[in-house]
Every structure is written in structure tokens, then in C-alpha cells.
Amino acid sequence: MAILFPDGKGGVIERTITSGFSNITLNQKTSPEDHFRFGSITKTMTSAVVLQLVEEGLVELDAPVSTYLGTGWAKGYTLNGVDYGDLVTIRQILNHTDGFAEFAFDPGFYVEASARMTTPYEPEEVVAWGVKRGPQYVPGEDYLYNTVGHVIAGLVIEKVTGKTAEEVLRTRLFDPVDADDAYLAPTKLAPQDNVAGYVQGELKAAFDLLPSYAQYREKAAVGDFYDVTVAPQDVPRSAGWTGGGIEAQADDIARIFRSLFTTAVTGDELTEFLTPSAHSSYALGVSIGDKAGQKVYSHGGGVPGFRSEALFAPDLDVTVAVSANLIAIDPDIGSLTDAIMKIITAAYA
User: Fold this and answer.
1) Which residues cross the membrane (predicted)?
2) What percent of the chain has pLDDT over 70?
3) Does pTM surpass 0.85?
4) What residues contact 119, with CB distance under 8 A and at least 6 apart?
């Protein structure tokens, strides 16, 4: 966990706290140098880059995605006989009003993915999965959280800039805040392995049911926990990409996340960034809410074996980034950030 708070002199104080084990089997304790998977917090970063491109006149929020990926890029994205493939807009893929389903909530996707454990997903495959599933509603008329939209945003970033998404995020977001230990998988991976990631309860039982995991069960079982990272990680490190691929140390995530709302995106684009759709409290890749009576901009993340959350409280100029290498039965990571914000708010009272 990393916390940033003002020093009263125009600067920021950074504190990193670790607890628990990076690997239970090896009895290794966590350290500030450990890399965690921060999952969907990536979406906020990807949205910020798109908004920078909007500011530069290279992308328009309400333009169809086909403007950048070409007519027919999502041919067959059909609901009730209407093909919405060329009608979905940039804004809709950022605020989850595009109609796409979420592969992380689809049991069939896990079965498919487990059958190709050493074959990474290409972004186009993830998009094709979403197109094949079809719109879950008429795009623009409802909200449904999904990762496909932000994978599409990554393709738009690459098309417009002519660079890899990893390179763009590094140049525009990571380097300006010295986030040297942040990486966008699978394009670039950390020089050291991530900590082991664990699940328990129903998720543990679900992994036990996947035929391709049978050969790993004995090694993966650690008491009530199941180490999902003993199996090949090519799929979980590739499917999310610009919608969920960030691997980093907690302090890097905190610095990046704070910068998104203080320096990386400004002016009219910041207003757009923080404006929810009519269908939810989710804006363009960021949730708008409150914790302990404080307004917060936040995003959670969850990939097999990891849960995370990052938040920025603008009125206090406080940033919190937390990741756990366990998807617990209860409490969830949000309960931890709730408790942290109560302590912080009390300290400022």
C-alpha cells in the first residue's frame, strides 16, 4: 500500500506500507519492491491518454470508433437486426455505455482461456469475443462495466500515435512521475516476477473445476488458499492489456494515479474525465464517489489472484493505492480503503 499526502510546502510525502506474504509456500514476506497486478486501474490511465489525444485534436470523444479503426472494425456487433459496430463512440468505450459484455464475468471465457494457457491473447481476439457476444443493450442507452471497451481504446491509441500502447503510457504517464517500476503487460514485463496470487472459497472451487488446472492442483493448494500463479500466466497477463494489464509497485501506482487528476489531464478534458454518464456514477474510466465524507476519484482492479484499488481525494490532495495478492471471501479491498480514508479524514479534522 502506498499513500501520498501534502507536506504543507507544496510538495508530497510518500509512505509505503507492506504486510503479509508475497509467497506463502516460500515464507517470503512482502516488501515495497514487490510487483503486484493492479488490473482495471489501468482503465483510468488509458482514458487519461485518450483525453490527452482529445486535447491535441487527434481524437474526438463523440466520434465513432470507426473513424480511427476503419469502417467495419466491429462488423456483426448486432442487436435486434441492427449492426452497431460503426456507431459505437469513443466516449461510450470509456464510460462503459458501449454495450459490450465483460469477459471476466463469463465462465465460458475462463474455460476457453484455460485451454490455451501458454498462448497470450491478442487485443483483436478480445475485441472479437466482445463483438461476437453482441451488444447487451443499445449502445449509449445503459451502463455495463466491461474491459473490451478499454482494449479498443488501446487499439485507437496505437492507431493514432503509431506507437505501442506501452510506449505511449510510459512516455506520457509513467516517466513524468518517475514510475520506473510500472509495466503494461504483456508488451513489457517486470524484470522480477510478481508476487504469488491467491484465491479462496468459490473461486478456489472454480479453478479446481478447470480441466487444464488439474496438473497444478497439488502445487497450488496452500491450506485454504489456491495459488493461481503456479500455472502459466500468459493468458491473465495478456487479456486485460489497456483495460487491465498494469503490473507495478504500489508507490508507482499512487504517483501515476495522482498525476492523472493534477497534471496529466487538465482544462475541459479534465471536466470530461470526471463527468459521469446519465446511467451511472462512472465517468470516463474513473468512478466518482465518496469515502469517509470525502469526494474521491477511484478505480478498483481484479485479476485472478489480485485485488486492488486506487483513489485520489482532491480536497485533501491525498492518494491511496492498495493491492492484495488474494481475492478474499470477505472483506473486499474496498473495506480496507474505507478504513484508511476514515483514519486520514480524522487526521485532517
Assistant:
1) none
2) 100
3) yes
4) 234, 235
